[in-house]
Amino acid sequence: MAKTVLITGANRGIGQQLAKELAGDGWDVLVGARDRAKGDAAAARLRKDTGGRLKGVELDVASDASVATAVQKLRDGAIRIDALVNNAGIYGRTDPAATLETNFFGPLRVTLALVPLMTDGATVTNVTSGLGELSNLDAAHRRLLQDPALTRDALVEHVRGFVRGEAWGTNAYGVSKAALNALTRLLAAELPNLRINATCPGWVRTDMGGRGAPRSVEEGAASVRFGVTATESGGIFRDGKRIPP
Ligand code: NAP
Question: Is 34 near ligand 1, meaning CB less than 6 Å away?
Fold first, then answer.
């Protein structure tokens, strides 16, 4: 039986490319998009390109209500998820709250909401960035995120602190991805029947990365894809190799 993957923010960029490749390889692909029309259009486009099975799913990762509605629809359709790719992200907004809501709380809420629909051994891939490396943070937050005693609730509270104005030594995007890396480790420990990793696409020529980026969207998607079939859990990878947190 074909496996099912849900990719958030898959209507363009790296998410769309990954959707295309997995559909071409026989996966059933749920194309997550916050704008339903854009998700349906991307799914139709990729069905034409690949002859594969893709379907749009309206899913705004920054909205509890949108995630709940999407999960209910999947449940109603008796859909089981073998792989989730938390790809949706924003960069460069001036509003730190929106960045954290999308890039950190988004993967957290989508993952927790989907756990009941996941098959045993399913993978969760959190798309991270080199800008989230601990070396970019101030010493206190470097220590905090590496602390073996850190809990998920404490991490969430610290991220809320950043949104309220506490400094971490880097910008909202860097904080969102550094916290996402720590969350990946914590969720992997919390949910041992899943394989939960973070993968970095590198700097990629998408709307986000810009035309001057060194990597093609295919190279970026290949690096992210490692997480979809990973056998380990709790790691951070680029091009299939572990990178520092
Ligand atoms: P992109 O071309 O800007 O695409 C971003 C995607 O995320 C779009 O489909 C966008 O949907 C979606 N999105 C944004 N907010 C959302 C929300 N609240 N709910 C659902 N979808 C939402 O970016 P990309 O370069 O493909 O980036 C994909 C991932 O890779 C991101 O997590 C990014 O941080 C990470 N990354 C990228 C680079 C790079 O150089 N490009 C480097 C490191 C990491 P709309 O079309 O509706 O806006």
Answer: yes
